[in-house]
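A reminder from the course coordinator: this example appears on the midterm review sheet, so study it carefully.

Given structure:
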């Protein structure tokens, strides 16, 4: 199925790019821009983005790596504004 008509990208192209990126870097964050780049193309009108994203989300290899999840929830050792106070 054609997903991006401007660049003639199919759902299989997207799956292949995601699978290739995940196999080459297990910790990679895979974005639509990276998929375009992996295919040697770039987005034109952007009209395909909703379908492009839903196609990407169907791929099991798109999942965010476990080590990058919940980074905002991790407690920090540093007090807020600690560095700002030290510099004055
Ligand atoms: S349809 Fe994909 S960039 Fe235009």
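Designed residues:
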């Amino acid at each position: 199925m054609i997903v991006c008509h401007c660049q003639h990208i199919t759902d299989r192209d997207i799956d292949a790019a995601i699978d290739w990126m995940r196999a080459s870097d297990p910790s990679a964050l895979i974005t639509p821009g990276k998929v375009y780049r992996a295919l040697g193309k770039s987005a034109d009108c952007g009209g395909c983005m909703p379908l492009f994203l839903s196609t990407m989300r169907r791929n099991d290899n798109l999942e965010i790596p476990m080590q990058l999840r919940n980074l905002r929830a991790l407690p920090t050792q540093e007090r807020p504004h600690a560095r700002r106070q030290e510099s004055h």
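Residues 4-7, 43-48 surround FE2/S2 (inorganic) cluster (CB under 6 Å). The mean pLDDT is 86.
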